[in-house]
Design goal:
The chain has about 200 residues and is α/β, with parallel strands linked by helices. The chain has helices at about 15-30, 50-55, 60-65, 65-70, 80-90, 95-105, 110-115, 140, 155, 180-195, and strands at about 10-15, 35-40, 55-60, 75-80, 110, 130-135, 165-170. The strands form two sheets. A four-stranded parallel β-sheet has the order 1-2-6-7, sandwiched between helices. It has a three-stranded antiparallel β-sheet with strand order 3-4-5.
């Protein structure tokens, strides 16, 4: 039962920090989940969040005092569209999406970014299927300009999973659902879930 409702199957789906939470929960409650779907995520904690380290983020209150002036200086965001694009976008996307994303962007704290890396863990007892979809150029979770082996760590970190499906989308950054590859990712996820009788 979840929130008083009994479910026949539970598929936990997460993007970015949400995928980190899904990974952590699959390790903590392996028998309670029937499928894990991880988007914009890798299991390599050493490469996460290079945007903080590269200085592409600054205190949100300093960037836009009218909008975020009351927020403590530990909360950070990108100061320009160029910084947002460099850290989260890549390849084929609609420029209008970048504009909307920049306008509606939120903020992170360095503390949260560092804390969530402790939730990128092995899930040795999880036995259900795992789907991992990530952009080939996801600098937030692969570091550098390209994912190399990071997405495939899902095999060793989920050693007892009944199925490992890894999709790396060419010429795509971290915000994969805002990239033209987003439609393929959604279709791949639906096929994965259908194949596992969801």
């Amino acid at each position: 039962k979840v929130a008083g409702v009994k479910w026949n199957k539970i598929a936990l789906v997460g993007f970015s920090i949400g995928a980190t939470v899904a990974n952590s929960l699959s390790a903590q409650y392996p028998s309670d989940l029937n499928a894990i779907v991880l988007h914009g995520f890798s299991l390599d904690a050493t490469r996460s969040y290079p945007a903080f380290l590269s200085g592409l983020q600054l205190p949100a209150a300093q960037i836009d005092p009218g909008r975020w002036g009351s927020i403590p200086p530990e909360y950070m965001t990108q100061s320009s569209r160029e910084a947002r694009e460099a850290s989260l976008f890549y390849g084929s996307f609609d420029r209008g999406i970048l504009e909307a994303d920049f306008y509606y962007r939120d903020f992170d704290s360095l503390g949260a970014a560092m804390a969530f890396t402790y939730h990128i863990v092995d899930a040795p007892e999880y036995r259900g299927p795992v789907f991992l979809g990530i952009g080939e150029n996801d600098s937030a979770f692969c570091g550098g300009t390209k994912c190399i082996g990071q997405p495939y760590e899902v095999y060793s970190r989920y050693p007892e999973a009944s199925d490992h499906t890894v999709k790396v989308y060419e010429s795509t950054g971290h915000l994969i659902l805002l990239n033209h590859a987003g439609a393929r990712l959604k279709e791949d996820c639906l096929q994965f879930l259908k194949a596992h009788e969801f």
